[in-house]
Amino acid sequence: MPLLRLIPCLACLALSLIWDVQLPAASHAHCQLTQQAALCKDFQLSSVPTDLPKNIKELQLNNNPIRVLKNTSLSCCPHLKVLSCASCCLETIEAHTFHNALNIENLNLAKNHIHTGYQQTSQALWHLAQLKVLDLSENGLTENMVSLFLHNMSSLERLSLSGNIMLRLDQTIFHNLHRLEELNMESNALFEIEGGAFNSLQSLQRLNLAFNNLLCLVNFRLTRLLVLNASHNNLEWFISDQDVKEPFHLQTLDLRDNRLLFFPFLPTLSHVQTLLLSDNQIGFYQHFANISSLNWTTHVQFFNLYGNISNVTVELWDETLHGDISSVELLDLTGNRVVYFPRGFLETPNKTVCGPLQSHHSGS
């Protein structure tokens, strides 16, 4: 009988010990702890909690008024891989903040004010040699600030710079990003992309330039790119580099809501499957070139903003310049000025064309 009475007591003691170990993790004063993640969103925190479990690999601090990440803020989290500080009113990350969290691979700093202390913050980011995903969207950043942030970011694979105030891209801004696969530049104020700005991005597969002020994209030569979104700009020209001999891997080209007058000059060797051209001013005009009384020019040469002659010369009325569209499966020309297609333009089967024509006749 004494032994039988002892067994339930031992069981209760064991259960009590387990409860004592798990209870603090499940009912932390400022965070919800699940496995190896600390979810501290919307707790009105002004700093990072100092008593978090040392084994956590993910820390979510979104929507807290944390103006500064101090040098000691992450000393409790040496194994951290994911850190999210979106919408925290964050102004500065002190230079040594990540010294005890060098394993971070995914960092979300979206919707903050890090332009205020961008110099210290950039120094802090340079220590993250394993960083793969970085979100700097909506932080009031200029191109000079961004260039400083990216100075030592060769490990990056995905980068978002959307919703900032960048005006132009030069040849140095992405110089070290050889592993970058996805770049989001949506909703800035970009009006110029200097030739060679993307040359270092040899691994780039997805590029978003939508909702900017770009006037033209010429000498396009990103052969490994799969998706390009340049919709909602002021583009009048899209011209691929016709001298590139290797095939382009581009599958989706989105040029909706621009000011294109001519069908985009696609690569000679193309794999484009989806071509979105709605809400432009596209037409085919070769029949006008035969009307001598119009005295229209047949060639145009492009100049950049510095007055240097570009090597892009286009014969305006040559309708073969639309490039290789044999792989196109969806072509959206809704809201354009197309009244006819050139001879042979749609001879490839299995092609879907959106947008009714005003009239139909073959090209000359």
From TrEMBL:
<dbReference type="InterPro" id="IPR032675">
    <property type="entry name" value="LRR_dom_sf"/>
</dbReference>
<feature type="signal peptide">
    <location>
        <begin position="1"/>
        <end position="29"/>
    </location>
</feature>
<protein>
    <recommendedName>
        <fullName>LRRNT domain-containing protein</fullName>
    </recommendedName>
</protein>
<dbReference type="GO" id="GO:0005615">
    <property type="term" value="C:extracellular space"/>
</dbReference>
<keyword id="KW-0677">Repeat</keyword>
<dbReference type="InterPro" id="IPR001611">
    <property type="entry name" value="Leu-rich_rpt"/>
</dbReference>
<dbReference type="Pfam" id="PF13855">
    <property type="entry name" value="LRR_8"/>
</dbReference>
<keyword id="KW-0433">Leucine-rich repeat</keyword>
<keyword id="KW-0732">Signal</keyword>
<dbReference type="InterPro" id="IPR050333">
    <property type="entry name" value="SLRP"/>
</dbReference>
<dbReference type="InterPro" id="IPR003591">
    <property type="entry name" value="Leu-rich_rpt_typical-subtyp"/>
</dbReference>
